[in-house]
């Protein structure tokens, strides 16, 4: 169908989720639209998204169209495009335009629509706006698993069967589930930016059963925290302090002085370095301020270390205390799991981890409703039946150091939670 024969018609949905979205229909299809909700045509169709944002104190606008597979309901199509809409708004805020800058050192025939050619163009532009480690990972995934199978295929001939064939081949080679899922992470945006929108629900991906759980004791946790906070490399030690607040390693390494707001005691993880592609603001504690002041930097990146260097520092710190079964990302799990196990609210933990949905936090860190219910009951019972113990702890000067250390580990925990942890530790010592 000739796209010039279509007109943008505002999408109407009863749940009001289609703001700024338009379906492209022919005159005949427009006449068939009746009722309070927009209906999809019986073909592959397109939805146009129009967004606006403020850039350099000026209002900027932009729009893009996306292909929707035949048979997809408007509700599902709109839901699948919400992430695209958010990304468009963010691009306007950062660049003032939705146009992708041309990359001088990548010269390709514009008529060449083979996947290899389009990937080179896409990744060259992506390298301008993405984390270097992400770009390297995408290149490796494409070269190892995709290019060798369908790199010479023209993009407009791509089908769900082509993608499934790659995934099946990778499964047969015994690759891990997360490695196989990386194929989707690369292919999906690459195809969509070239107006190829596959129905990914028809593509079967393996379930990831290798989710790492933090199961170490409180004693091990204290050893780990102590080793990191007393590590002999001041730059790495500063990074560790941020990791002990639940931050990801790349979020921390690419943090700049411009992201720090001392006036409001906060710092911002920019969208381009956040996994969820959104800006997130977190509290700037005295410990984090000290970690920043330890660095000999005044502008740009605060911590002048690279990812691989930090991995080596982490392995060294852990080997010093005889721990060899952790990776650096496990610190994030340690903070979350330990906080939850000791009474922290799951909603607070979810915010700390910058999860978009509490369900994500529950799926990764909460095991069994009965256990959580018992913990909740125990918290209540301890609080109402032993108030004098809290007073004793407060009056015990020797315990205040322990209280301060615990408060640093669990900055979002209430005093009641801290007192309960101290009581549990005291009970364990008596046994």
Portion in strands: 5-15%
Q: Please give the CATH class of the largest domain.
A: Mainly Alpha
Q: Which structural class should the secondary elements be placed in?
A: alpha+beta
CATH topology description of the largest domain: hpI Integrase, Chain A
Q: Which architecture of the largest domain does the CATH hierarchy give at level 2? A: Orthogonal Bundle
| Topology order in helix (H) and strand (E) letters | EEHEEHHHHHHHHHEEEHHHHHHHHH
Structurally, how many domains make up the residues? 4
The count of β-strands is: 7
The major β-sheet equals: 4 strands, antiparallel
Mass-distribution shape: globular
* Rg, Cα atoms, Å: 26 Å
Termini gap: 78 Å
Strand order of the largest sheet: 1-2-3-4
Number of helices: 19
- In CATH, the homologous superfamily of the largest domain goes by the name Intergrase catalytic core
Helix content: 40-55%
Low-confidence stretches: 102-108, 387-391, 393-398
Mean pLDDT: 81
Give short descriptive properties of this protein:
7 strands, alpha+beta, three-stranded antiparallel β-sheet, four-stranded antiparallel β-sheet, hpI Integrase, Chain A, 10% strand, DNA polymerase, domain 1, 4 domains, 431 residues
Task: Summarize this entry quickly.
With 431 residues, the chain is α+β, with helices and mostly antiparallel strands.
């Amino acid at each position: 169908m000739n796209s010039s024969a279509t007109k943008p018609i505002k999408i109407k949905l009863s749940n009001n989720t289609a703001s700024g979205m338009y379906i492209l229909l022919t005159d005949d299809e427009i006449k068939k639209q009746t009722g309070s909700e927009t209906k999809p045509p019986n073909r592959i169709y397109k939805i146009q998204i129009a967004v606006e944002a403020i850039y350099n104190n000026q209002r900027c606008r932009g729009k893009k169209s996306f292909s929707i597979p035949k048979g997809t309901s408007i509700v599902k199509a709109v839901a699948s495009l919400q992430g695209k809409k958010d990304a468009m708004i963010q691009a306007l805020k950062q660049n003032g335009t939705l146009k992708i800058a041309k990359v001088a050192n990548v010269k390709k025939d514009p008529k060449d629509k083979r996947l290899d050619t389009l990937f080179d163009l896409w990744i060259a532009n992506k390298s301008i706006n993405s984390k270097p480690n992400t770009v390297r990972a995408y290149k490796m995934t494409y070269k190892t698993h995709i290019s060798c199978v369908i790199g010479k295929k023209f993009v407009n001939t791509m089908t769900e069967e082509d993608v499934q064939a790659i995934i099946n081949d990778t499964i047969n080679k015994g690759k891990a589930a997360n490695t196989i899922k990386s194929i989707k992470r690369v292919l999906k945006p690459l195809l969509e930016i070239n107006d190829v929108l596959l129905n990914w629900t028809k593509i079967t991906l393996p379930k990831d059963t290798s989710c790492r759980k933090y199961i170490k004791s409180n004693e091990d946790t204290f050893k780990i925290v102590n080793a990191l906070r007393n590590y002999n490399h001041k730059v790495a030690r500063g990074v560790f302090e941020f990791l002990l607040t639940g931050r990801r390693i790349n979020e921390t390494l690419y943090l700049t002085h411009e992201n720090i707001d001392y006036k409001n005691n906060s710092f911002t993880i920019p969208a381009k370095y956040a996994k969820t592609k959104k800006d997130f603001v977190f509290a700037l504690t005295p410990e984090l301020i000290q970690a920043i002041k330890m660095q000999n930097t005044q502008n740009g990146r605060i911590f002048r270390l690279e990812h691989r260097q930090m991995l080596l520092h982490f392995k060294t710190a852990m080997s010093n205390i005889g721990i060899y079964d952790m990776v650096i990302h496990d610190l994030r799990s340690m903070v979350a799991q330990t906080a939850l196990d000791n009474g922290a609210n799951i909603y607070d933990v979810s915010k700390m981890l910058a999860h978009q949905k509490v369900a994500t936090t529950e799926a990764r860190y909460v095991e069994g409703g009965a256990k959580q219910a018992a913990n909740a009951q125990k918290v209540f019972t301890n609080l109402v039946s032993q108030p004098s113990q809290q007073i004793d702890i407060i009056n015990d000067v020797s315990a205040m150091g322990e209280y301060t250390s615990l408060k640093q580990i669990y900055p979002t925990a209430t005093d009641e939670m801290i007192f309960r942890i101290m009581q549990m530790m005291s009970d364990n010592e008596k046994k």
